[in-house]
Amino acid sequence: MLANNLDFLDELSRSKVAKVFGDDALLETTTDSTTVFSGRVFSAEVMDVALSDGRAAKREIVRHNGGAAIVPIDDQQNVYLVRQFRSPFDKVLIEIPAGKLEINENPKDCAERELREETGLLADKIDDLGEILPSPGYCSEVLYLYMATGLRQGPTDPDDGEIVYVVKYPLSDVLAMIDSGTISDAKTVVAILKAARRLNL
Asked: Where in the chain is the domain with CATH 3.90.79.10?
């Protein structure tokens, strides 16, 4: 096999071989896996893998059930965002409503639930904006993005242990906040840009 005949190649040559032979030269085979942590939000495992050239390597993987996020935009093209404290960065971030998928939960249902819980908003229409892989180098999370329009106000119902403030900005201001770095959360940046493009802005 090709995997057994690449030992003599340097890294540049390996990349050329991958281009010639396709993705097969990039694939890895898991030979062993150990779960080292299992929590409420994610689990972590250490994997032993075999590379296509015969070498062995280790991978540290976070297993996450995935999530959904939604961009609420009203008829005046105002965007509803939430301000919340994020412990890993020890500061308040500005984000679109989002949350973790429950087991076997439909992503669109999750997005609607998070919209209602965090902002109290209900939507007449929800459009699919696609999905993203936030951290594919080490995390299995898939994040599903949506846009909500035809908004009407209902009651908020935040999760226990969560405090969020709802803020409203014109979409043009939100785009400027992305450019300036005021909004730096990845899912928010991607979803807002996708929504703006969907609206031909």
From this structure: 67-198
Bridge partners (DSSP) listed for residue 79: 73, 169
What per-residue confidence (pLDDT) applies to 26? 87
On the CB side of 179, CA atoms within 13 Å amount to 6
Per residue in 145-171, pLDDT (tens digit) is 999 999 999 877 767 778 999 999 999
Looking at the domain 67-198, which fold is it?
Nucleoside Triphosphate Pyrophosphohydrolase (3.90.79)
Using CA atoms, how far apart are residues 168 and 171, in angstroms rounded to an integer?
A: 9
Gap between the Cα atoms of 77 and 200, Å rounded: 12
User: Which residues lie closer than 8 Å to 199 by C-beta, 6 or more apart?
Assistant: 73, 77, 171
Query: For the chain, which residues score pLDDT lower than 50?
Result: 1-4
Return the number of other C-beta atoms located less than 10 Å from residue 69's C-beta: 25
Chain centroid, CA 60 distance in Å: 19
